[in-house]
Amino acid sequence: MKENIYSYDDLLEMLDHFLSEERKFDWDVFYSDRDRGVPFFKNYPDENLAEYVETRKITPGKVLELGCGPGRNAIYLAEKGFSVDAVDQSEEGLNWGKERALEQNVTVNFMQQNIYGLDIEQGSYDLVYDSGCFHHIPPHRRMDYIDLVTRALKPGGHFALTCFVEGGSLGGSDISDWEVYRGKSMRGGLGFTNEKLTNIFRDFEVVELRKMKDQSPEEGLFGTSELLAGLFKK
């Protein structure tokens, strides 16, 4: 491996290499055991997303979901009349999502790709949704992530996400961005506060920012107060 930096991409590659813990995690293995007791493996949409739709904070249009996994939110949106492009790197997760979509007779355009390699036409989407991807984005990739969301959205379009609460029981390390590189680890995922998210997405209008609402399985929704839910407008 070359160890000289001649470009911005070379710098990103070096910093990616330092975070070996995150690079080694195998999402295909994670999704291969479908019977493991992972709450978000159930085919339920996020409670905040359902609330946005039911209260018409967002209305049917074209959606890009980042890190869709087995497609529970993408399928919900397709059922509600949205046109959905759903992206993930895991072939195992996407295959599961395709099976679910077929069973429920809905159409979702599942795409296996790194989100940074997406070829997106400027202003293509009414909504960009991210459930649990952002807290795995290392700080040095955050600017590219924001550029992707900004480029994807139409003027007036919405961006929504769920992410770890800082210091939460499910994850959400409370370390600084610098400490990520001192320790060469994000400790399983970074945690956020309302203030941090507001600062990171300061070029967007905050529509709503709160903890998710805890949900029981019989409610048919996924929700836990260990995650933050944010809705922003371009």
- Average pLDDT, rounded to a whole number, is 94
Reading off the top of the CATH hierarchy, the class is best stated as Alpha Beta
Number of strands: 7
Kindly, what is the distance between the CA atoms of the first and last residues, rounded to a whole number of angstroms?
Answer: 40 Å
Order of H and E elements: HHHHEHEHEEHEHHEE
Q: Output the number of helix runs.
A: 9
Tally the structural domains: 1
In terms of DSSP E residues, the strand content is 15-25%
CATH topology assignment:
Rossmann fold
Task: Please state the overall shape, judged from the principal axes of the Cα atoms.
Answer: globular
Q: What is the radius of gyration computed over CA atoms, rounded to a whole number of angstroms?
A: 17 Å
Largest sheet report:
7 strands, mixed
Which residue ranges are poorly predicted, with pLDDT under 50 across at least 5 consecutive positions? none
Derived structural class: alpha/beta
Report strand order across the widest sheet: 3-2-1-4-5-7-6
Helix share bin:
25-40%
CATH architecture: 3-Layer(aba) Sandwich
Full CATH superfamily name: Vaccinia Virus protein VP39
What assembly state would you assign to the polypeptide chains in this entry? Answer: single chain
Describe the protein's architecture and organization.
The chain is α/β, with parallel strands linked by helices and 234 residues long. It has one domain: Vaccinia Virus protein VP39 (Rossmann fold). Helix content is 32%, strand content 21%. The chain has nine helices and seven strands, in the order ααααβαβαββαβααββ. The protein is globular. The termini are far apart.
